[in-house]
Amino acid sequence: MKVLFSMMKYIRKNWKLWVCGILFPAFFSTATNIYFASILQDYVAIITEHQTSFQRISKMLILTLPVLLLLSCIDDIGLYVFSLFLASTENELRYDFYNSLVRTPLKNLQKLNQGEFITRYNTDVEQSAQIVSYDIFGVIYPLIVGTGYMAAVLLADFRIGFLMLLLGVTVIILNFLFVRRMKRAQAEILQAKETYVSNCSDAIKGKMSIRQYSAQKVMSKKISDAANKLYRKECRAVQLETMKLLTSDAVANSCIYLLTPIACIMAACGYIGVSVVLFIHQLCRCFIMYTQNFATSFVHYSEHSLSFERMNSVISFENEITESSVNRYGHIPENFAVTFQNVSAAYGDHQVLKNVSFTALPGECIGIIGESGSGKSTLVKALMQMIDYQGKIYIGGENCRDISLKMLRKYIAYSPEHNDVFPTTVYDNIQYGNLNAAQEEITYAAEMAGIATHREVFLQRNIGENGNQLSGGQKQRVSIARALLKKAPIYIFDEPTAALDADSESKILNTISMLKQEGKCILLITHKASTLRIADRVLQIKGGTVSQV
User: Fold this and answer.
1) For position 323, what pLDDT does the model report?
2) Distance CA 432, CA 450 (A)
3) HEC per residue, 275-334
4) Which of 128, 229, 259, 296 could form a disulfide with 308 if both were Cys (CB 3.0 to 4.6 A apart)?
5) Buried-state track 286-315, b at ≥16 Cβ within 10 A, e below 16
6) pLDDT surpasses 80 at 250
């Protein structure tokens, strides 16, 4: 029930759709079938009369058909409304899932691999939406309809009604016996899917290396093993489903096959009329069908609650903009000097930075060097408040912890080492640096980043998934152009020339020199000695500490 209470907020958002979608089909479906069963009873009663006219029967049919069609149409409208509620809820869940990913601290995104995120977004979100839609529908709808049918049959004949109730309860109990086992099987299937998706993702990412190093067999075996494991788990689920068919479904079918013959025998013995037999047959068939649905809904709820727990672990990620940070404004710094004062940072038990202290002044370019994993990128993440750290970082005398994240990141333009790009045009990728920038500003930023040849054509090029339509150097220039477009007082360039030729590197260094003249504070992370010539000072990170070269 805890899962259901957690999902109630999605019902409250569209409660009108939910109420109409639940109640309309339930009440009007009950009315349709009971009315139809009673009409059948009346037909038989009329037909068995000795003085029955064709005109009387035709009149009855003409009056009955529009009523049945009207009730059926209202039932269908209710189902359509409920489908709208399901689509709306699923959309809300996907938005919350995405919103959590883009707002949570980076450390949370490292808890799961890409395959897990994809599986939870595609599979678990869809199944979680079923909890407040068809799982609840599958309980309330049969409950209302089944109760109506049961009352009608009990009024027609108490003995048949009691036997029908007994068989229905048996069906529900047998279904409940499978709940835990089917939930466990579903959990194993979802875990196997995550492994399979993750392996496929690795194969796509490493497509060139796989061919270069003839690793096709190794990757194929990993994917094949994951697929076989998924197949075995799904076979287990099929076995459980088959066992359910042979038990609870068999009892359900016996209700259909048994109660009508019993009613016929009672009619032959004179206990009930033939018309009552048809009435009972029609309602017994519908009753047991909805009883099966009622029990199955609890099984599905158990499986879907597992998906919700997996999805909710992502939606529940903490927001990096906490309530305490919303009110952090600080003051606009008098200048934009960056000062690190005894800053330390660690990932688990691994200490990356130890009491780092230095100051980068406006109009100064600080080169930062160090081996891979020495803490260069950690230094940048600490400045942008993306990781936890000890010590203090100041911008112009203002503690970064006292400045709102929105304002803080407005001061900083960052070109990352791995050149984050999005599957759209080059122009749109650069525009992310300043969504309000004019076309001339975007073109100028591209020029300053060394995008010169066929610039207008290049800006309209679609870079494809993961930027696979651009070379490494082209992606690097796009990332730099985006940072330049921001026009911030502090610039961070992480390996800005790693994939560039000498001419392109010279252009970038000229741009950095121009930024220095404008009084920008620049942190330049690089391994290339040729790039370091633009730096006023060079700091080396080694063993977690900083020393000046």
Assistant:
1) 46
2) 18
3) HHHHHHHHHHHHHHHHHHHHHHHHHHHHHHHHHHHHHHHHHCCCCCCCHHHHCCCCCCCC
4) 128
5) bbbbbbbbbbbbbbbbbbbbbbbebbbbbb
6) no
